Hints:
The protein has 19 helices and 24 strands. By secondary structure, it is α+β, with helices and mostly antiparallel strands. Strands 8-3-2-15-14-1-24 form a 7-stranded antiparallel beta sheet, covered by helices on one side.
Amino acid sequence: MSASxxxxxxxxxxxxxxxxGNAFDAATAGAFVxxxxxxxxxxxxxxxxxxxxxxxxxxxxxxAGQGHAPRAxxxxxxxxxGLDHVPGAGALAAAVPGAVxxxxxxxxxxxxxxxxxxxxxxxxxxxxxxxxxxxxxRVLATVEDLFREHWPTSYELWMPGGRVPHPYSTLxxxxxxxxxxxxxxxxxxxxxxxxxxxxxxxxxxxxxxxxVEEAAAVPHRHSSGTDHAGVITAADFADFEPWxxxxxxxxxxxxxxxxxxxxxxxxxxxxxxxMLDHFxxxxxxPSTAEGVHTITEALKLAMxxxxxxxxxxxxxxxxxxxxxxxxxxxxxxxxxxIGPVAATEFRPGDIGVRRPYVPPLETRRPxxxxxxxxxxxxxxxxxxxxxxxxxxxxxxxxNMISATPSGGWLQSSPAIPELGFALGxxxxxxxxxxxxxxxxxxxxxxxxxxxxxxxxRDGAPVAALGTPGGDQQDQxxxxxxxxxxxxxxxxxxxxxxxxxxxTAVPSSFWPRTxxxxxxxxxxxxxxAIVDELRRRGHDVTVSGPWSQGxxxxxxxxxxxxxxxxxxxxxxxxxxxxxx
Length: 579
């Protein structure tokens, strides 16, 4: 079974499975197709987080494909550039790209296919074209002036013939196809692993790293409205190395939930679940005002702790922080703070391990698109607030992977003309304050919003799921888990049901604002629920009827071996397939 945010990626992954590939071959092939099919939501210059289990070893592990800050990306450098935040668009905000190297590493370690077989799908689509989904056309129309006036390489690549592509027209990227063909050509050696490793070297220290350094060094317009050069170099590429690490876990209604560590926002979902496990099903039912309120208040508490304590910490420190945040005593203490009225203050807990960090609490009303699609929210400066893509795969043997690749959006920084893609802007999730646990430090990963999920029952993997959405990713997954694990919804029912999220937390995206008491909810809910939430003190914004969440999921019953999948109907792009 395969499920993702775009039908071409799901179909690609399923094709690989039907031709004998395993889940890791399939996910890698689908992910490279996502670079071509959803270039406004992810790209080769971005990053990756995945959680997986193999048929031989069901223990959940995390593929840490989040790149780190370059050697010259210091707080002092940004201040010297006249900046008080890391910009949301422009190469100065680029972390070392981790997505491509991590996919190739995974293919070498756990896959079975040759590199040319895996990349053939993406090359075909890049050379012959993909349909321009309406969101992609809207993004390109939004940044047309930026590209024309300041990013000419992007204008040439994404607006062929000097005009914005129309929805459902065909868009090609022959430059990226050439990059992939060159990686294949560089992949020489006597064994499959050796061929993939030599392609990785071409990415890490060869023609790709060299082209990135040269392009980033050219000053260009950033979302700050000022011009800067990037600081990333070829040496930074060589510093990055993907790896597998044990997942962080917690239990909810008897099911084990596996996430990435404190360098992601993943433990926030675990914190919220351990709080909600103290309430009965009726109190957390998302179809009621009481349930929306209770879930929202738990999320606000968990996300306050995210700001106060999460970051790419020393392993010993991370162990201490996680031990306290996920302890039963702390969960009960935090659950006890949820009252009948919406809290409007920022409330991190006192974990006794380190002092809680309080970030700048700048307010501005969030922008919600009137048509209700809203993903991604892109400004004319190229600033993008919280969207990406996702893919889940389970194969006949029981291998399972949930992956959220992101960053490197076409609107994130000027296209690199020799390569056909842009760098990402993940450093915008760091603070230029050395007191912050997620402050900018060379060699340290920004605290990423990428947060896929694996579920286990009695130690056996039973589901892989995730969603795009920046700060909303774990919020929408939490609602899904409550509906499926506590209320008995099937996966498609849970995905289709009305969703919501809080904005009462500083955004992970530039310019890092928040809305105290903010709550965004789909317009399909009963108006009486909205009225009750406002009576309780929530600052409610009603968005479009199908605007919140883009979840996908694959499932496996370990007793029968029966597989399942579900995907998001919003935007008519998500697709689940299998046989």
